[in-house]
Amino acid sequence: MKASRIEAVEAYVMGKTVVSIEELCEHFNVSKSTIRRDIDEVLRRGTIKKVYGGVSASKKRSLISFTERHVVNPEEKDCIARLASKQICNGDIVFIDSGTTTSRIVDYLTDRKNVTIITHNLDIAIRSIPNENINLIILPGVLNRKTLSLVGSEAADILSTYNISKAFMATAGISLEAGVTNSSELECGIKKMAMKKSSMRFLLIDDSKFDAVSLMTYAQAGDFTAVVTNKQPSEKFRTLFQRLEVKLICPD
Questions:
Q1: Which residues are bridge partners to 169 per DSSP?
Q2: Cα 155 from chain centroid (whole Å)
Q3: What Å distances lie between residue 155 and 119, 139, 171, 193, 224, CA to CA?
Q4: Which stretches within 110-230 are classed as H helix?
């Protein structure tokens, strides 16, 4: 439990500009003494540093492996995936982006019929195999081991030939200034094409990624039909989504 929380604390701080002790205590529902011990352990790794007002990432948020990301915030990711899966109807043609939240959508499609999934992620493909009601299309490319994705221009070119009902997109962070960002430059072309070819676009994002900025911007908030998250975001994001007429989907 402690080890997984420390990993989650590290990931949370890496996605923010500056995080206060109070914010970390509230987010992880632990005492100040507990969070300080967790911070001390993460500080020894060199990935974060102490700054005035709290802690921050030692450098820009970089891409960590799929396996490492998979164990961070699992309950939040399951919540988001379950909510997102409710948007998929019988007969839909959907693109599911590479990500440790998006990949969990497949687990909630056991009662759907004749759903076509287009993906470039191997974990999503493997999860889809046992479900005979899923028609699976795997985009070609070169394997990126950190994301378990097949990447390259060929994937985007083939994706451009499909007419997609709904796209379920992953992100490393969203901010008012940078928009919706991604850690891997190898996947940006695929993400942009999926956005272009889809009638409806859903952004799946957990609460730790609001106000986070990563390497490349692939979309703006207003490009999405809806944002699916595990809890209500701050007022500035709620106001943004309302102004842009982007639906906010989160638990009651």
A1: 203
A2: 20
A3: 9, 5, 19, 10, 22
A4: 122-128, 153-159, 188-197
Would you state the torsion angle of the CA atoms of residues 103, 104, 108, 112, taken in this order, to the nearest 10 degrees?
Answer: 0
Q: Is residue 62 part of a domain?
A: no
pTM: 0.75
209 and 123 in a single domain? The answer is yes
Nearest to 120 by CA among 64, 167, 69, 62: 167
Question: 221 lies in which domain range?
Answer: 67-249
Q: Is 92 helix (H, G, I), strand (E, B) or coil?
A: coil
Pairing of strands 115-119, 93-96: parallel
Q: What type of residue is 40? A: D
CA 195, chain centre distance (Å): 15
Q: Which residue has the higher pLDDT, 35 or 1?
A: 35
Is residue 81 assigned to a domain?
Answer: yes
Strands (E), 163-197: 164-169, 173-175, 179-182
State pLDDT tens for residues 48-82. 888 877 888 765 544 454 455 544 568 899 999 99
